[in-house]
Each structure stands twice: as structure tokens, then as C-alpha cells.
Amino acid sequence: MTLPATIPPTAELLQSFGIALGLGLLVGLQREWAQKRMAGIRTFALLSLFGALSGVLGIAYGGWALGAGLIAIAALIVIAHASELRVPEADSGLTTEMAMLVMFATGVLTVLDHRLEAVMIAGSVMVLLQSKKSLHGMVRKIGEDDLREIARLVLAGLVILPALPNREMGYLGVLNPFSIWLMVVLIVGISLAAYLTGKFLGPGKGTALAGFFGGLVSSTATTASLARRSGRPGACGICLAAIAVIASAVVFLRVIIEVMVTAPGHLKALLPPLFAMMAWFGLVAAIMHRLSEKQSQPHTDEEPPSELKSAVLFGLLYAVVLLVVATAREHFGNSGLYAAAALSGLTDMDAITLSTSRLVSTGHLETATAWRMILVSGLSNIAFKMGLAALLGARSFVKPVLAGLGIALLGGVGILVLWP
Which residue among 130, 159, 180 closes a domain? Predict the structure, then answer.
């Protein structure tokens, strides 16, 4: 960080000191409430104020003065920590000590024309300190399998992704290794986040939440699982059907998010018909949920998080869809594109949505054709789940789920035909 050439005017200095003092009081309030022996509200206020003063001395006399202030604070922290360890049942963690160092640096930032950053950092420190119980409780709920999947996501997103070339290559110049793997990371991240959120909220939270998380993970897998469960004795067919319909409706929310991420410059042309489909499907799902409220709520089993093997298979599918769509556009025009979208959407909408949006963002596909392809894929996916439900489900499940998905399908056909 480059220090300013001169000391700021008195008015600005007083403002910086006031901000540093206030931020120290804010974090110190939490430490005082937590009854920490080492540092409370006064200590943190003085600490951040000393950071601001050290920043001024650093501006006036060079970086050595700032370094000396940091060394002095570090020495005081070491002495205080050593004294605290002699107290029986003392907390041996380093959270307060690290917070003190961060707040010293935050005080320095206030006089170096980085006040907004200082406020954001101090606020984050207070939130982290206050969230001890919830964060520790969250960690205790994460099992070994969950941690393994998180590690795989880190491997895919933070290790492999940066190493891939970010340029167009291959047939018709539509294959970008970085973009393809980025979509893999996106899908796995959404699925894992949905799984962990559902796990933290606990089972049996109701039809709406079960359908919502099922739609985020995989509406097709959710429908197949519910259809199989509908044959068990005592199963509530209308409740299971409502979960399946809600999960299918949530898919279009997921599609909209994917379009926003991959084609941010074309949202005005791509999103309105997709929003219309989501609204129509949401209305159908709300009615189904209302009808199921009078029935007993089913217990929903937690599904395991996505595996990296599935992500790699998705990446291959995504690349194949890119090639198929590009080839269809090159040789068969729009009719070939819609056929490719229908086939791709039978079991999964993510590949066609992400590949189509990517082609729009790179100028290889018109927006009017793109949203129709996505919608055709969605209608194909609905039809496939209707067949899946009819094949695997019990009668009490099949009738309501076919009614709900069928009405949604008719609305989608209407949007596809009548939208200008």
C-alpha cells in the first residue's frame, strides 16, 4: 500500500479518528458482551485509535513507524495471551488476538483514505465474532462425506479451473475449456449448496421446502424418487405430487440464474418469456401446495451431495451439446436447433441452458432463438418427468402429478407459440 505524500488536513484526520474509534467500540462491544478477559470495549476502542495514530506517524515519518506500532501491539497481545493461559478454564483460542490485530490494521486504513473498506472489515469482524455458536453448530452438522464433497468442489473450482486455457478452440470455435469447466463448477456448487442448506434446516420442514431444494439439486431425480416412494403403504400421493411439481417449477428459477450468469448482456431479450413460464409454473405449484396442505406431510430423505464424477460427465455432456447446437445451426437452421434442445432437455436442462447462453454471449446465436430453445428444452423435460411419474408412481401420485405438470406444459406451449 502506498502511503499518501502528506498528512491529511485536520478535519479529515478528526473524521478518520472518529471512524476508527467507532469501529473499535463496535467490535469491543461484542467482546465485552462475550466476557473476554483479554480485551473488551475500551481496549478495542483504544486499539483501533492507536492504529489510526500509527497510520499518521507512518505518513509523517515513514513505514518504520507503522511497523513499530504493529510490533508493539503484537508484543502486548503475546504478554496478555500468556497471562490469560495461567487462568483456570481460560479460552486457549486465538480469536480475540486475531481480532485485535485486524482492528489495529483497520484503524490504519481509516487515515489512508480507505474508510469504506475499514467499515466493511470491522463489520465483518463483529459478525464473525458474534456467529461463533452458529458457525460451530454448522461445522458439527457437516459429516465426513460432506467435507469430502466440499473438498472436491474446491479442487474443481480453485485448483483445476484457473489452470485451464480461457480461449475458443475446436470445431466451429465454440469450445472453451475454461468456460466448460466453469459450468461444471457452477452446477456442482448449486447442488452442494442446496443439499447443505436442506441438511442444516433439518428434515420434515414441509412440502414447499422439500420441493424447492429438490428442484435445486435435480427435479428429475426428485420426481423419480417420489414416484418410487408413492407406492409405499401410507404414502400421501398428493403431498408427494406437490413436491414434484414445486421441484419442477424451481428448475426455471435455476435456469434464469444460469442465464443471468452466462449471458448478462442479453437479459432484456432472454428473461421475459422465461419469467412468464416461471410465474405460470409457480402458480400451478402454489395451487398444488395448497391442495396438499390438508394432507399429512411426508418425511423427506436427505440426498447425498453431487460427486465430482457426475460433474465430469456433465462437462462432457455440456461440450457435446455445444457441438451439437453449433452443428445444427450450421447445417439445419432453427429446426435443427430446436430438435437438439428437445433431446438435450429430456433428462437435464442445465447443459442446453448454459451452452445456449454461452453461444448468445459470444455472438454465435440470436437471443430470440436462444430463449425458445431453452423453453423447448424445459417442455421436453416436463414431458419426460410426466412419463417417469406414470411409469414408476402409484395411482394416488400419478393422477395429481400428471395434472399439475400437464397444466404447466400447456402454459409453456402457449408462451412458445404466442410470445412475440
Answer: 130
Which set of grid coordinates corresponds to residue 138? Answer: 454448522
Q: Give per-10-residue mean pLDDT for the chain (420 aa).
A: 64 84 84 71 85 84 80 80 61 72 86 85 83 72 72 82 82 74 69 61 55 73 76 76 89 91 89 94 90 60 54 70 66 70 75 84 86 91 88 88 94 91
Does residue 345 sit in helix, strand or coil?
Answer: coil
What pLDDT, on a 0 to 100 scale, did the predictor assign at position 87?
58
Q: Which of 250, 230, 251, 228 is nearest to 240 (CA)?
A: 230
CA-CA distance, 34 to 302, in Å (whole number)? Answer: 36
C-alpha distances in Å from residue 303, one per residue of 105, 217, 219, 405? 44, 9, 12, 23
Q: Flag whether 212 is in a domain.
A: yes
Measured N-to-C along each axis, helices 367-392 and 267-292 cross at an angle, to the nearest 10 degrees, of 20
Give me the domain span that covers residue 198.
Answer: 141-418
In a domain, 400, yes or no: yes
At 314 the pLDDT is 61
Q: Say whether both 267 and 402 belong to one domain.
A: yes
CA distances from 329 to 165, 172, 211, 321, 358 (A): 26, 11, 36, 12, 14
CA distance 214 to 223: 9
Q: Would residue 223 count as lying in a domain?
A: yes
**200 in a structural domain:** yes
Check: CB of residue 195 under 8 Å from CB of residue 217.
yes
pLDDT value of residue 298: 45
Q: Which of 73, 102, 130 is the last residue of a domain?
A: 130
Structural domain total, the chain: 2
For 333: left if phi > 0, alpha if psi spans -120 to 50, otherwise beta; the answer is left
CA–CA gap between residue 166 and residue 178 (Å, rounded): 5
- Whether the predicted model's global pTM rises above the 0.70 cut: no
Does one domain contain both 34 and 167?
Answer: no
